[in-house]
Task: structure prediction
Amino acid sequence: MKAIVNAAVCPLKAEPKWESTLADEVLYGMVVDILEEAAAGWVRVRTHYRYEGYAPKEQLIVGDEAARAWEMLPKRVVRNKNCCDVLSLPKVQGLFLQGVTRGAVLGVRGEAESGWQKVILADGREGYAQASILGEHYTAPCCEDEAGLRRAIAEAAMLYRGTHYRWGGKSPLGIDCSGLASMAYMLCGILIYRDANIVEGFPIHEIPRERMRRGDLLFFPGHVAVYLGEGRYCHSTGRAGDDGFTINSLDPDAEDFRADLAEKLSAVGSYF
Result:
């Protein structure tokens, strides 16, 4: 059985209870597979990027028919702002229908007019979103050439500047290291493993350190970062003073060098 996420940010818990650790977050409009009914009000789900956890059933629209209809709609993704309001009218005075975050998926109808895009919500309601906030919904790599794709991945990661750290987070409301890496790739049409390690069956493979280039991933024990080129990388860290998205360098002479990470760099992963 499939279901559509019908909340701005749906938590995936390690156990079927609110008091459990946050394992991941699934964003509005994403489709999940329901694997089993769990404790009252909870279901175990698998995301389209093959991550599993327990979701509150009240935040899902359950049903294969609804999911199939949703998947057939043309889509846009919220990309160019942290959040997006869906309104009842194509003007800022419209009534608020739904708030979503970067990475949310919206159905669309027709072409944008006068800066507004008509959108379809997961529950079938129609509204309007500012077209400039929306980007292409990629289900395959967004660029055919390697240089363009590497640039797009790094730019997507940089969209999360200013986001604080949240264990298991994956939105501008709070993001962790692997959430940042996975969203940077997902916005570019590539699904990678959600946690901070290289897993067989996903499209990231280890490469020699001397071959790393912009858009590759740097792996440390329990941590991952997106390489920006010229020795610099961005990541989300809970370290006091950083408190989320930050940029550091692998160059010992750089002001933002972090020796504690540089000396523990365990692998470089690449899609290319």
